[in-house]
Design brief:
- Chain B: It is a multi-pass membrane protein.
- The complex is a heterodimer of chains A (295) and B (261).
- Chain A has two domains: 220 residues, P-loop containing nucleotide triphosphate hydrolases (Rossmann fold), CATH 3.40.50.300; 72 residues, no CATH class.
- In chain A, a hairpin with a 5-residue loop joins strand 11 and strand 12.
- Chain A starts with a strand and ends with a helix.
- A six-stranded mixed β-sheet of chain A has the order 6-7-8-3-9-10, sandwiched between helices.
- The longest helix of chain A has 16 residues.
- In chain A, helix 3 crosses helix 4 and helix 8 crosses helix 10.
- Chain A contains eleven helices and 13 strands.
- With 295 residues, chain A is of the alpha/beta class.
- Chain B has one domain.
- In chain B, 72% of the residues lie in helices and 0% in strands.
- Chain B contains eleven helices and no strands.
- In chain B, helix 2 crosses helix 6, helix 7 crosses helix 8 and helix 7 runs antiparallel to helix 10.
- The chains are: A alpha/beta (295), B mainly alpha (261).
- At the A-B interface, helix 2, strand 6 and helix 3 of A face helix 1 and helix 5 of B.
- Bound molecules: adenosine-5'-triphosphate (ATP) and magnesium ion.
- The site of magnesium ion (MG) has 4 residues of chain A, from helix 1.
Amino acid sequence: MIAVELRGVRKSFGTQRVLDDIDLSVPAGSVFALLGPNGAGKTTVVNILATLVAPDSGTASVGGYDVRTARDSAKGVLSLTGQSVAVDEVLTGSENLIMVSRLWGLSRRESRLRARALLEQFDLADAARRQVKTYSGGMRRRLDLALSLIRRPEVLFLDEPTTGLDTRSRRSLWAQIRDLRSAGTTIFLTTQYLEEAEQLADRVAVLAGGRIVADGTPAELKSQVGEDVVEIRSADDELLGAVATDGSVDGLHRAITQLAEVAQPDATVSLRSPSLEDVFLSLTGPALQQKEVQS
Amino acid sequence: MTALSPRRRVAVGVSELTFIERSLRRSVRNVDALLMAIMLPVLVMFLFTFVFGGSIDPSGNYVNYVVPGIILLCAGFGASSTAVDVAGDMTTGIIDRFRSLPIPATAVLTGHVVASLLRNLVATGVVVVVALAVGFRPTGGPGDWLAAISVVALYILAITYLFAAIGLASSSPEAASGYGFILLFLPYLSSAFVEVSTLPSWLQPIAQYQPVTPTIEAIRSLLMGTSMGNNAVIAVGWCVLILVIAATWGAWLFRRKAGHR
Ligand SMILES: Nc1ncnc2c1ncn2[C@@H]1O[C@H](COP(=O)(O)OP(=O)(O)OP(=O)(O)O)[C@@H](O)[C@H]1O
Ligand SMILES: [Mg+2]
């Protein structure tokens, strides 16, 4: 079953075309990561799916419900943690959670219980009775995430969920995302951290220039870059250059020759498998070094 | 869209109640604004009864004249923070969370409006109690009081709606608080502090034909037994007109800013 689908979606703001014919589909129960440089339109995609922004043309559906013609049904199955934290600063953490629980239709008693459980789960129990304006950035973000998990949604949208979280909170969120996935929730996330996509995502797509320029499993995308990456680093471990190769002896030869141009006297060369970062940079960055090697 | 939408899980009225509760909590926590909404009218009353009162009306009866005006000053002042609250919600991103929930997002505005109504009625009550303590001696019976409270409530509702719309139109809470002050001048250009006939002639039509004067005169008539004329009708007419305009403008702004863009 398909949980999230975009067909021929276009969106412009004024004269600026942000999305140009986007097609995506995410199978139910999987984790999908949308990558892309700043301003690529990731948040716009999420907002279209979360029914906040209308596409200019094309169709979008969540849980089988069209976000335009069955908007209320779509809202009923999705939950959103937007890029900017959306909490009430004047209320306490606990009051925020109770408020949103009530809005989801839970009774007062259920709301209190749910709030307590989520505060515990997101490591906020000690701050439950404090006004949110006294919270640190990471605490706000955790509360924001908790507010999206009042009920286990069918589809959860997370727009850069771990920005501003420390390593421990990030790991804990990753664990929770995996738990939600095994409970059947489809997760659609955007991130700037490629390690995050690598760790979590069943499938990854890269958005650049208003189009989807790559779409596949992390392994598929990495194999597009090449078999191996040859890296050259200076004595103080600064990356001087990296070239993808096809794994053949000739390829490696060519790579080394090319890297010799940037080499410094005591630079070292190493061979590693490609990462999603290489994929990302090769698709969105200016330096398409592996193309030169292959041509 | 609404006609085809399936039955909502959330019972009718629960989202409105939840938002009213939220706005009331915020009001109570915003001690500065709450104190100002009560303190400022009380101070203005002291100023006019004790400092200027003697020269305006040497008989010492000025307090009975000025209190109805102070009541409206208080109502307008307390309602202006609605603009700040609404602008805050619209610009902080929390509106997007509410809009992504299966509830009518306009309920958040209902919350602010109802909370403002209750907040201002309480503040007005405090002002009246203080007025009684400094010599305000109304002559109206219980029925007159009830009618006066209804007029005050209608006025607060109209002004609150207007400030809610101003909040929607503002680019930030700071901007919203700026617009608020413009509207607070109206009571000073009315019959609140002196009779219209004593104003400079060029100012008299402005004072006569603005909504605050008939509203004050209606309250004055109900509480102090001055002649009513058609002030009540004009006052209610003004309030309803303001309500309709503010609600239409607000609905249009809300659709534009928080609709399905
Ligand atoms: N409401 C809007 N009005 C006008 N332009 C907008 C609006 N929303 C987004 N844009 C523009 O659309 C483009 C894509 O924005 P979007 O927020 O979707 O990017 P993003 O991929 O999420 O970026 P980031 O990684 O920085 O979060 C940007 O150029 C932005 O300026
Ligand atoms: Mg974004």
